[in-house]
Design a protein that fits this description.
Number of strands: 0
Order of helices and strands: HHHHHHHHHHHHHH
Number of domains: 2
Strand content: under 5%
Helix content: over 70%
CATH architecture of the largest domain: Up-down Bundle
Radius of gyration: 31 Å
Shape: globular
Length: 386
């Protein structure tokens, strides 16, 4: 991999992070504006929940396929295309709202397509950032990207979307479309190719002349290549699923997070109706309520991190105490036998052998059993059961 010029690499990283931050603000505006728009068109909780499901469904259905496709395509082009497509979709919805012809069905279709664009955008952004920085800086760059996504989508975007919706229903959608357009311009200015290495290598038969069956689009080599491409795509998806199934910690984490997201999405799908009808909040209040929920999640994450650190420290302390107690029991036994006492208990009218300093004659006999005992104890303590 050619060495990058550090100033140029920094500028490209800054543009990428700015694009991610702007897109995240647009996503946050969507999170507030789309439910508010749906609730203004209907009070049926089933329809409101259907729109919310349409916006989240692509992550369940297309995420694996999107990951396999992103590994074959140029990541920057994927992100630019996703932003341009979402700009057109949200802009068209804003025009429909301004003209008074928006319907629940139109909002649901738009939400579904926006979810597909978001799936491809987020999936492509993860590997792209690794090509903009050196390996030693990857952790920091990933931290910046995650922070911008959280701040934009959960803290800045929802209150802004609620405030703009209170002014005019089409205003947050128009601002959202502009954010996607600006993000696409920043990503397009990166230049260069960001395709995976396996995707950039030309096929061995790409320079061969096409056969009549290929040009005619029949069942010849073109059909075989199409079939093999689909087969490789499905094979990659299956390989990822098999790897996840064999990785117990990640499999457990995926199942737990999936169950939690299912329960959370079920409540949030009609949360806008609860905020409006039961809490009496307006559009601006609903946006602030979403931001407050995100703030609570951030505080809980900080508390959990501290609690987890304390639990780890207590576990280490208990392990060390067990080792000290085990050594205190084993050293006197070995010392007593080395001194010539077959029972290992010593005289009853003398202090315990562990309270006496070992003499030079039996120090070697103490050291070897102690080292062996320490290694054995550490193996038993450090090795998990099973």
């Amino acid at each position: 991999m050619p060495k990058r010029d550090p100033p140029t690499a920094d500028r490209r990283l800054h543009r990428f992070l700015a694009a991610v931050g702007i897109t995240s603000i647009g996503d946050g505006i969507d999170h507030a504006a789309v439910p508010l728009l749906t609730a203004s068109l209907t009070s049926d909780a089933r329809l409101v929940a259907a729109v919310a499901m349409a916006q989240q469904l692509p992550w369940l259905v297309f995420s694996l396929v999107a990951g396999a496709l992103v590994d074959r395509w140029d990541r920057r082009r994927v992100m630019v295309t996703a932003d341009v497509a979402r700009m057109v979709l949200v802009g068209a919805l804003a025009v429909a709202v301004a003209a008074g012809v928006a319907t629940v069905g139109l909002v649901a279709v738009t939400a579904l397509l926006l979810g597909i664009g978001d799936t491809f955008f987020r999936t492509a952004s993860l590997p792209l950032v690794a090509t903009l920085v050196e390996p030693a800086q990857l952790e920091r760059a990933n931290g910046y990207e995650s922070s911008l996504e959280i701040v934009g989508a959960e803290f800045v975007g929802p209150p802004l979307g609620g405030l703009l919706f209170a002014v005019a229903a089409m205003l947050p959608l128009a601002i959202d479309a502009g954010s996607f357009g600006l993000s696409a311009l920043l990503l397009a200015s990166l230049g260069g190719s960001f395709a995976a290495r396996s995707a950039t290598a030309p096929a061995a038969s790409s320079t061969a002349p096409a056969s009549p069956a290929t040009r005619a689009g029949g069942d010849g080599p073109s059909g075989e290549r199409r079939g093999s491409a689909v087969g490789r795509l499905l094979s990659d998806v299956g390989e990822g699923l098999r790897w996840l199934r064999g990785h117990r910690p990640l499999r457990t984490l995926a199942l737990v997070l999936g169950a939690w997201n299912f329960a959370s999405s079920a409540g949030m799908s009609v949360f806008v109706l609860f905020a409006r009808d039961r809490l009496g909040l307006d559009a601006q209040g609903y946006g602030l309520l979403l931001a407050g929920s995100a703030a609570g999640a951030a505080v809980a994450g900080s508390v959990i991190a501290r609690v987890a650190g304390r639990v780890r420290r207590r576990r280490r302390h208990r392990r060390r105490r067990r080792v000290r107690l085990a050594l205190a029991r084993r050293v006197p036994l070995k010392r007593g036998r080395a001194a010539g006492d077959p029972s290992g208990t010593g005289p009853t009218n003398e202090p315990p052998p562990c309270a006496q300093a070992p003499s030079s004659s039996n120090s070697a006999a103490i050291v070897k059993p102690t080292i062996a005992s320490t290694i054995g104890i550490w193996l038993r303590v450090a090795t998990p059961a099973g």
